[in-house]
Structure formats: structure tokens, C-alpha cells
Amino acid sequence: MNYNLNELFEQEKKKSTYAGLKDLFKLIAHERKNLIIAFFTILTDATLNLLGPFIIGHTIDKYVVTKDFHGVLVFSGILLAMYIGALFTKYLQTTLMGSIGQRLLYTLRNAIFNKLQLLPVAFFNQNKAGDLISRVNNDTDKLNQFFSQSLMQFISSIALMTGASIFLLSINFKLGLATLVPAVLILIFTQLVSPWVKRKNAATLKSIGGMSAEIQESLNNFKVIIAFNRRDYFRKRFKETNQENYNAAIGAGLANNIFLPVYGLFSSLAQLIVLAYGIYLISIGEFTIGLLVSYLSYAVNLYNPLRQLASLWSTFQVAMAGWDRISQILSLESNLAISDSNVKEPSAALLEFRNVSFAYPNGKEILHDINLKLERGKTYALVGPTGGGKTTTASLMARLYDPTEGSVLLDGKDIRSYKPDERSQKIGFILQEPFLFTDTIQDNILYGNETYSNYNSEQLTELIQTSGLGELLAIFESGLETKVLSSGDSISLGQRQVIAFMRAVLRNPEILILDEATANIDTVTEQLLEKILKKLPESTTRVIIAHRLNTIENADEIFFINSGEVTLAGSFNEAVDRLMHGKRSS
Ligand SMILES: Nc1ncnc2c1ncn2[C@@H]1O[C@H](COP(=O)(O)OP(=O)(O)OP(=O)(O)O)[C@@H](O)[C@H]1O
Predict the structure, then answer these.
(1) What's the pLDDT tens digit per position in 386-415?
(2) Which single residue of 77, 462, 491, 516 could bond 495 by disulfide (Cβ 3.0 to 4.6 Å)?
(3) Which CATH number fits the domain 23-330, given the four candidates 2.40.50.140, 3.40.630.30, 1.20.1560.10, 1.20.1250.20?
(4) Which residues have any ligand 1 atom within 6 Å of their CB?
(5) Residue 193 and residue 263: Cα distance in Å, rounded?
(6) Which residues form the ABC transmembrane type-1 domain (predicted)?
(7) What is the pLDDT of residues 463-482, one digit of tens each?
């Protein structure tokens, strides 16, 4: 299955802004009450602001012209009270929308992160970590900015414009219609150019993701870069990505700025229409000066928010482009779904491959029509040339991937029918480069171990001793309290493998897979690991991938993996012979 988000984005039918908004509001449905309150404060604020010009016009015609200063004073007082009221509602809107924005950011980041935890290994193979980080951090913040800073002004502008249009039409219908013509033209223009503007913004967000991926890759591999003195190479690569981002940002900037001048032009045009047509109406006695003053104010009340909408519209387009990138992750389904097991012929083996074929997305077939069985309590070795498919075979055993064809049976049931916790309880997998979290060794050992998760250090130390792992723990001066920093970089790869080994063994799995798990360990420690492996419960099945031949000497069966085939090597000597003389697949 294709999980490449950037490729999928190009292929997908683009969602309309309306559909995008609908999805977004579903996510913040629980904020409905706060949104309604905010909406009403916005409406109140808009109404108070709209009543202003009407009262001014009324005061001029009724009290200023007739020099009734008492009336002027009363209406000035009313205006002041209204402006104070408007101030209060504005404050309420700002605090409400600010907190809704922050909560949205919080909810979204949690939702994306939780989704990422559910996605299969194939997703992470096909997407760069930096781009994903940028989606979690940067794209969500674009939405927050829109919600906490712009949405309120957005709704308030629309409310002001609607109110102003009603006043304009009700004061003088014909003049009102003429004033609204430029506004309608603006709406048509906005509708037409918005998809293009959104695309430009999406390109910028994509390039920010690309830049973040570039930074992440160079930071992760800084040792190689320094060792090979390839700073110039990464500098060049970064410069290119930065240039790409610069070009995209300039393009988006141009697109975003298109609204402001066009809106400005049309709003000046509307004022000209009001003035010219209004003066004409006064000259034929159909209009008064007071009404024209109010009218001009309403025209300003219509076109000023429209101008504000021009800048808000670009923020909205950026937010919607961000939302598209976020919702893309949220809508992904893991292809490692749990399904019913419908095995026709029963299997007595602990693990069985039935007609399994496998290819990585867009890649050639790595395994073709494989049948193999692993019995309880036996030790199996997987050997073969580099790139032959050993890790891939082991990954299928642990359901890191699903076969493209055929099925893997665990304990007689299709492995796809197990819940992830049941499956990982049965299978322990020590990866070639074990990953450790920034924490103590104790926490890293207990990671994912439900049985002992509440153990304190004394209990865990005792457990480690009784499980025969004491000598391994003794390698670390500070024992369980030893700190692991920055994904395991503070300790050696061999030490990392030892911790991963303890972690896997203490989970007491039915199958323990060791993928080159001793490749970086000294001979004495390796012998210690072998001793511990032998002491595992009799029913534990061991699957060992190793290039060092002594590691596989004691295996009950040896599988030779190459060129899409998995065959039984028969004896150790045959395996050695095939390794020495066999052709590699890649
Ligand atoms: N994530 C991946 N995406 C695409 N192709 C992959 C991926 N991982 C491995 N491959 C390809 O699959 C083939 C088998 O790789 P695999 O890691 O299973 O070999 P291996 O026998 O374990 O090699 P080694 O001894 O070097 O660990 C290789 O040709 C490799 O290029």
C-alpha cells in the first residue's frame, strides 16, 4: 500500500474548502458551546458597531440641524455606552477564541500523534520523519493561528458586512444595489482564485516539511558527515531545499497578496458610486445630507471589513492548506488491520508461512511463494547473503509487514487476527539497531512489558538475577539507573543490544527473534547471551539471524534465504558451503 503522503497528495482529488471545513468542525464539535457563545459576542459587537453610524445620521438630521443640544448630548451618551459595550464583547471574543485555538492545537497534535502510533512500519519507511514533525508542529499551528487570531475577525467582518448590506438596501434600495455590485464582483474573484492560492500555500508547507526532513537527516547523521567531511554536500543539499522553500514562499506571498489590492480597488469604486449616485439623489430631492453621511459610513462598514477579509482570506487559505496536510494523516487507515482468521487447514507449528510472497511498495519481489514451519522450543537460523531477505522474513514473522500474498500463521491462527498486544506478547524481536528511549535502563527494559510494568528497581533487580540476566546488568556501572541519552547515543551499540536483549527476554515471548543481535557484542558477552538463550524456557522458539557462523552452529535447522527463496540448508556445513559459493540476489 502506498503511504507516501506527498505522492498521495498529488494523486488525490482536491477537497473543496467547504468539505475541508466540515471535517475540521467535526473535530472540534465538542467546542460547540464555546463557539456559539463566541459567535454571539461577535454578533453583538458587530451590531453595536453598526448601530453607530445610524445613530450619528439620526442625530445630525434630527438634533444637529435643529440645534437641539440636549438631544445631541443624550445620543452621544448612548453612543459612548455602545462603544464600551463593544469593547467588552471584543475582549470576551478574544479570550474565548484564543483558548479555543489553543485547545484545537492540543487536540490536533494529540490526534495526529496517536494516529502516527497506529500506522504500520511501511508508513514510516515511505515518509521522512522531518516532514511528519513539520505536520505535527508547523501545520497545526497554522490552524491555531487562524482560529485564535483570525476566525473572530473573519466572522465579525462577515457579520459587519451583512449588517451593513441590510442597512444600505433598506435606506435606499437602488443605491444599495449599486453599492453592492463591487462586493459581488469581489466574491466571484475570490471564489475563482482561492484554489490557486491554497495550492501555493500547500506548496510552501510541503517545502517547509522538506526542509525539516533535510535538517533532521543531517542532524541524525552528523557523525558520518563529519567523518567523511561532507559538510559541503549537506550544505549544498540544504541550500537547495532552502531555495525551494524561498521560491515557494515568494510564490505563496504573491498569491496571498493578490486579495488586498483587488479588494482595495473595488472598495474605492463602491465609495465613488455612493458619492456620485448619492449627490445625484440629493440634487433631485430623494436623499438627505444626513442619510448620505450614514450611507457613506455603512459603505465604509461594508468595504473596510471586506478589505480586512482580504488579508484574513490568505491566513484562511494557509490554515486550510495545513488542514489538508493534517487530515491526510488522520484519514489514513493502517493496512495492518485486525481481521478474522479463516485458516482452512489447521497448523500444528508455532509459526508457519503458507505460500507467502512479499514485495516492498514499488519494489521487486523479495520473497516468492515461501512455505516454512517453526516448531516450539527449536532454534532456527536464517542465513544468506547481504540483502537476501533475512530481515524481511523476520519482519513478516513479527507482522511488521503483511505478506503481499499468502499468510503467516501464529499458533495455528492467521497472524492478522491477533491484537497488537497479544502478538507482541508472543513475539520478541531484537532489531539490528535496537532503539532505546531517552530514559533510564530500567524504563527501557520495562518498556512494553505489561507483567512487570509496576516493578520498582529492587523487584526488577531481583527478577533480572533470577532470570539469569544479572551478569548482563553488571556491564553497566550504575545498573538500572544508568541514563540513556538521545536515542541511545550515550551508550555503545553493543550495550544497546544487551539492553534490548534483556528487554526482550524478560517479556518471556514464545518466539524470540534476534536479528544480528550479537553483531556488536564482544565474544565473552556473546557467550553469556548464548548461555542465557539456552536457559530460556524449553518451549521458547529462537530465530537467529547472524553473519557470524559460530552463532548458528547450534541451530536445529538452518534456512538459507536468497533470490526470493527460503530453503532448508540441511546441515551447518551445507549452509557454510552455500554462503561461500552462493550467488547473491542483489
Ligand atoms: N524498507 C524497505 N523498502 C524497500 N526495500 C527494502 C526495504 N528494506 C529492505 N529492502 C530491500 O529488500 C531486500 C532484502 O533486505 P533485507 O534487509 O531483508 O536483507 P537481509 O538479508 O536482512 O540483509 P542484511 O544481511 O544486510 O541485513 C534488499 O534488496 C533491500 O534493498
Answers:
(1) 888 899 999 999 898 899 999 999 988 899
(2) 491
(3) 1.20.1560.10
(4) 125, 360, 363, 366, 384, 386-392, 586
(5) 13
(6) 36-317
(7) 888 888 888 888 888 888 88
